[in-house]
Amino acid sequence: MSIRLASLDDIPVIRRLAEKIFPPTYRSILSPEQLEYMMQWMYGRDSLHRQIADEGHVYFLAYDGDEPVGYVSVQQESDDVYHLQKIYVLPSRQGEGIGQQLFQAAISHVKRQHPSPCSLHLNVNRNNSAIGFYKRMGMKIHSQGDFPIGNGFYMNDYIMALDI
């Protein structure tokens, strides 16, 4: 297993992974309309380009040999707060420790960028089974909210936090 920093050239890889991961992850939680909207909103080519080129999202890709199997992205939100924007592993590869390796890659990146103490936050749907994974990684539920994302859709999320 290897993890490497992604670039703009990796947008097609991220999109292909998202198409295999995001719908099965949320199919039982979100409506088909919201799933389609969120795929375009978060994983459209222009959206990913803007995230990486303009908004400071740093993506890492996990590979098993030549096969991409997961990704994570992290973004600095303020002086002492980073946001874990995305962390996903192919459903067929979940439970193999890949998510933990991606999580650690994000933590290592944050520590390199911000050696002094800071916090890592993330949003997770309140019905997502990944909450258990985040708790195992040391994160705690900090707050919750219903966040409008456009087209009348909301993200019904917990905000989880980890002091680094």
Question: How would you describe the overall organization of this protein?
Answer:
The protein is an alpha+beta fold. The protein has a single domain, classed as Aminopeptidase. It contains five helices and seven strands. It has a seven-stranded mixed sheet with strand order 1-2-3-4-5-7-6, sandwiched between helices. Helix 2 crosses helix 3. The longest helix is centred in the N-terminal third of the chain and has 16 residues. The chain is globular, with a radius of gyration of 15 Å. The two termini are 25 Å apart. The mean pLDDT is 97.
Could you give the topology of this structure?
Layout: E1 2-5, H1 11-26, H2 32-43, H3 45-53, E2 58-64, E3 67-78, E4 81-89, H4 98-113, E5 119-125, H5 131-136, E6 140-150, E7 153-163
Parallel strand pairs: 4-5
Antiparallel strand pairs: 1-2, 2-3, 3-4, 5-7, 6-7
Summary?
Helix content is 36%, strand content 37%.
Summary tags:
164 residues, alpha+beta, Aminopeptidase, 5 helices, 36% helix
In which order are the strands of the major sheet placed?
Answer: 1-2-3-4-5-7-6
H-E string: EHHHEEEHEHEE
CATH architecture: 3-Layer(aba) Sandwich
Q: Major sheet, described briefly?
A: 7 strands, mixed
Helix content: 25-40%
Rounded to the nearest angstrom, the radius of gyration is 15 Å
- Label the overall shape: globular
Mean pLDDT over all positions: 97
Number of domains: 1
| CATH secondary-structure class | Alpha Beta
Intertermini distance: 25 Å
Please mark out the parts with pLDDT under 50 across 5 or more consecutive residues, or reply none.
none
In quaternary terms, these chains amount to single chain
> For this structure, what is the CATH homologous superfamily?
Gcn5-related N-acetyltransferase (GNAT)
* Number of E-state strands: 7
What is the strand content?
35-45%
